[in-house]
Design brief:
heterodimer, A: 279 residues, mainly alpha, globular, B: 323 residues, 1% strand
């Protein structure tokens, strides 16, 4: 039998070792994923990826040009709709209605929306846009992404504006500035880089979103800039190509995955850098 | 800030109007957030109504039938698949996340804290479709060749629960989906746990150390009891994510509508069923049944996420009171 003292030490050592091992396990999965992405995707990252459109079934040559352009467009529309709305709603929560009952409800609902299943948002946009208009379109994909952007931006905007000390608001008010001027010229300006960070985070979030695009933007094998048409985009292309039977489709899916992951990781690291220099 | 200004000098006249306009616009935007949620629920309900009227909500939920030809649908199999795969994910993710949070808050030397924390959070930033690709092409074959035979030979031999660990050696199964999901939610749970662990005042930790506790005893008897509500909130947050996850699951779950006891059998989840069948669904009842599944998913995740939020708010209040 071990003495109580030795047993406590043993339990401690065992559990702390286990804790270190779980951390290694988490890091191991991160590196495994990144390793696989580079191994399978890097060799296919060449110019033809950016200059040629998607190959059809059985076609040998091809790239992802239309999907890349489509993804940029959809992400752009999503951010252009979602970010202003999000910033304004965040402004209300931080400035005008800080303690009102409606702000409490909005905060609560916003946090729920932040993690709401994105596929349901796809179904919702299908019902309000695709079904009435009778066709899949880039616009509906953009709207679906915007609904995902809003809660992210609302949250960070409110947090960042609240970091601005009240003394600054009072100083501006004492100079005779009306409330709206205090908010736009003082608070928004002071919180600007933080809010930008939130928007970048939202971009990173929607860059890889697939589920809401499946029945809104759908996908398009051909190059188009027409937002009224189904629009090619990277995530759905990766999904279709990965599930498809052709080897060159799989290769392109890996190359696309690597592209998205790199973009998302760079955005994330950038935002971290932004926030750290701010503090 | 909130006091009325009663100075004798007159404020510029435009100010009041500008305030009302700008304040009104921000108010409208905030209300728009509420409207979006309301519209989602309303549209899901409207879209699901033909199916719910035909089958009845409870019958729909209790039936495992999925027959597009006869137009007979039931949501039991996807709902069970969603719950089971998320449960597996939580069972794996909770101890691992706890270990990671413990490592970052208590064990890691200061220079290591930040890089490790960032690396774990980057795991959360990777889009779910990448997890799906990796799961399908890399993890599932590896799992089928290595881990699954091992589990079938050991746990599969046990009485009663043995049946759970049987199935074809494909690696495409509810269990694989659970594992991939667990990797996805570990960073969420771990970072909430880390944050709430850090709210425990240093003085309390130090007094426990001063009484001769080991690091583990401090965590288990002091830190964890104090942060219990927050920890559970973090777990619920992870659960909410797992329930609604689509792409990672769709790749590896197998998309079969039969219900099995075996966890290594292919199955499906609500999100993967919608993702696979929505664009192909012809007929009002088929589409309505898929939307009804979406409604069920939304209601489940709403309840879970709302509970998570309530718990985390309670935790924040507690922490506020103490400091």
């Amino acid at each position: 039998m071990l003495s109580v003292y030795a047993r406590r030490k043993l339990i401690n050592a065992f559990n702390l070792t286990a804790s270190a091992l779980t951390t290694l396990l988490g890091l191991f999965f991160l590196f495994w994923l990144l390793w696989v992405l580079f191994q399978k995707g890097f060799s296919h990252l060449d110019w033809s990826l950016f200059t040629q459109d998607m190959p059809g079934p059985g076609e040998e040559e091809g790239g992802l040009r239309n999907a890349i352009v489509g993804s940029l467009l959809l992400t752009g529309v999503g951010v252009l709709i979602g970010a202003p709305l999000g910033v304004l709603a965040g402004t209300y929560l931080a400035e005008f209605g800080r303690h009102s009952w409606i702000a409490h409800i909005v905060r609560f609902i916003n946090d729920v929306l932040l993690s709401a299943p994105s596929i349901v948002i796809g179904v919702f946009v299908y019902e309000i846009m695709v079904a009435p208009m009778g066709r899949f379109s880039g616009w509906s994909g953009g709207v679906a992404l915007a609904i995902i952007v809003i809660p992210v931006v609302v949250r960070t905007t409110e947090d960042m504006m609240r970091l601005v000390p009240d003394a600054m608001r009072e100083a501006a008010a004492a100079l005779g500035a009306p409330r709206w001027k205090v908010v736009t010229d003082v608070v928004l300006k002071a919180a600007r880089s933080g809010i930008m960070t939130g928007i970048l985070l939202a971009v990173a979030r929607i860059a890889g979103e697939t589920a809401p695009l499946l029945f809104t933007a759908l996908n398009n094998q051909f190059f188009t800039l027409d937002m009224n048409q189904p629009m090619g985009n990277l995530p759905v292309t990766i999904f279709n190509f990965a599930m498809g039977p052709y080897d060159n489709w799989h290769d392109l899916a890996w190359a696309g995955s690597l592209l998205i992951t790199l973009a998302v990781l760079v955005l994330n690291i950038l935002t971290r850098f932004f926030l750290r220099t701010k503090k | 800030m909130h006091a009325e200004i009663t100075s004798p000098g007159r404020r510029p006249k435009g100010g009041h109007l500008g305030d009302r306009i700008f304040g009104g616009i921000t108010w409208l935007s905030a209300v728009a957030v509420l409207l979006v949620l309301g519209a989602i629920v309303a549209m899901l309900y409207l879209g699901a109504r033909p199916a719910l009227e035909k089958f009845g909500f409870w019958n729909f939920l209790a039936s495992a039938q999925w027959d597009p030809v006869e137009e007979l649908f039931g949501g039991l199999s996807p709902t069970v698949g969603t719950l089971v795969s998320s449960l597996i994910a939580i069972l794996i993710a909770v101890p691992v996340s706890f270990g990671i949070a413990l490592f970052i808050t208590e064990l890691a030397p200061p220079w290591l804290k930040r890089p490790v924390g960032t690396a774990i959070e980057l795991l959360a930033a990777i889009p779910s479709i990448i997890y799906g690709m990796w799961g399908l092409f890399v993890f599932a074959p590896w799992f089928a060749d290595n881990l699954q035979p091992l589990l079938t030979d050991t746990l599969g031999e046990l009485p009663y629960v043995g049946e759970l660990f049987q199935g074809p050696p494909l690696g495409i199964s509810v269990f694989t989906a659970g594992i991939v999901l667990s990797i996805m939610i570990i960073p969420f749970i771990a970072s909430v746990m880390r944050d709430v662990f850090e709210t425990v005042p240093t003085g309390l930790r130090e007094s426990a150390f001063g009484l001769g506790s080991t690091t583990w005893e401090v965590v288990w008897n002091v830190v964890l009891p104090m942060t219990r509500v927050g920890v559970v909130g973090g777990i619920m947050l992870g659960l909410g994510r797992a329930l609604g996850e689509t792409m990672a699951v769709t790749f590896v779950i197998g998309n079969a509508h039969e219900l099995h006891w075996g966890l290594f059998e292919p199955g499906n989840s609500i999100a993967s069923t919608i993702a696979n069948e929505f664009t192909e669904a012809d007929g009002e009842i088929y589409t309505a049944s898929l939307i009804a599944l979406g409604l069920i998913l939304f209601l489940i995740t709403f309840v879970v996420l709302a509970l998570a939020k309530v718990m985390l708010v309670r935790m924040a209040r507690q922490a506020g009171r103490r400091t």
